[in-house]
Amino acid sequence: MIEPIGTGEAVVFWVCAVLSVVGALGLIMSRRAVHSALWLALTMISLAVLYIANSAPFLGMVQIIVYTGAVMMLFLFVLMVVGVDASDSLVETIRGQRWAAIALGLGFGILLTLGIGNSLAGTGLIGLDGANSEYGGNVEGIARLLFADYLVAFEIVAALLIVAAVGALVLAHRERMSPRPTQRDLADQRIRNGMHPGNQAPPGVYARHNSVDTPALLPDGSIAEQSVPESLRVRGDMRPVDRAAVEETTELSEGQPALGPTTHPDADDPGSSPGEGR
Amino acid sequence: MNPENYIILAGVLFTIGSIGVLVRRNAIVVFMSIELMLNAANLAFVSFARINGNLDGQIVAFFVMVVAAAEVVVGLAIIVTVFRSRRSASIDEPNLLKY
Question: What's the pTM value of the predicted model, to 2 decimals?
Answer without folding.
Answer: 0.72
